[in-house]
Amino acid sequence: MIKAICIDDEVHCLDTLALLLKEYCPQVQVIGQCRSAKKGLEVIESTKPDLVFLDIEMPGMNGFDMLEQFVEIPFAIIFITSYDQYAIKAIRFSALDYLLKPIDPKELIVAVQKVEARKSLPAAAQFDMLLKQINHKRSDFVKIAIPTAEGFELIPADEVIRCQANDNYTFIFIKNRSRVTACRTLKEMEELLEPFSFFIRVHHSWIVNLNEVIRYVRGEGGYLVMSDDSMVNVSRSRKESLLKFF
User: What is the pLDDT of residues 206-230, one digit of tens each?
Assistant: First the structure.
């Protein structure tokens, strides 16, 4: 059983989340509901939850401000937010999980399953990365956090050569290294890499770093030869957008 508390300043959001968890995630036991981050700190201290559902936008002290009160964060977190493009990108870059309001039951189930499958709590470096991005409003992200079965890896974005879909996982091929298996779909990786203009989806199974392309070979869709001597197929539907980059 996963002991969880929910922190949100809106009562109907707390009630809705509790009902969804009861119906779709019975393995989660809600042991506390808090309408402010300040109260959340008190309940976390007294109940020691395994998981915290944390609303980002709250008056007084928001979710990110609350996290800064901890030296170490001894629980898993699933952020709850209305659409905030910058905050969502920062959360993705930190390899943390979030749900958009109104919460989709299917997405809730997946988020909880990720918490269950994780072998360790999120590392302090992930939260450090998140808070630095939020506090400084950085748009010049240099590294990305890649979630793996063991935890996560921080990888400079420009060292990624290509990404290959593998069902619900993605193989990431990195310069001078063997591949890393990310616990993310290729679609999720595409969203994560969106701020970097040198990445492009060229096939339903491939994303490439344009700086690592050696040459393009024509064909129905054609294919790319990459700096690691690999060949990446280009789909007909994506050929035109690829050639525009060149």
Answer: 999 999 999 999 888 899 999 999 9
Q: Was domain 155-245 assigned CATH 2.40.50.1020?
A: yes
CB contact at 8 A, 61 and 37: yes
Handedness of CA 201, 171, 105, 20 (dihedral sign): negative
Contact 34, 5 (CB under 8 A): yes
Asked if omega into 122 is within 30° of 0 (cis), the reply is: no
Q: Which residue has the tokens 């999720």?
A: 188
Boundaries of every domain in the chain: 2-136, 155-245
The length of the chain in residues reads 246
The fold for domain 2-136 equals Rossmann fold (3.40.50)
Choose the weakest-confidence range: 4-18, 37-51, 113-127, 203-217: 113-127
Which residues of the chain form beta strands (DSSP E)? Answer: 2-7, 28-34, 51-55, 76-81, 97-100, 143-147, 152-156, 160-166, 169-174, 180-182, 199-203, 206-209, 213-217, 223-226, 231-233
pLDDT tens-place string over residues 76-101: 999 998 866 667 777 876 768 889 99
Grouping H, G, I as helix, E, B as strand and the rest as coil, residue 225 is strand
Helices marked H in 36-123 — which ranges? 37-47, 63-67, 85-93, 105-117
Q: What are phi and psi of 83, to 5 degrees?
A: -65, 115
Smallest CA-to-CA distance from 162 within 229, 200, 208 is with: 208
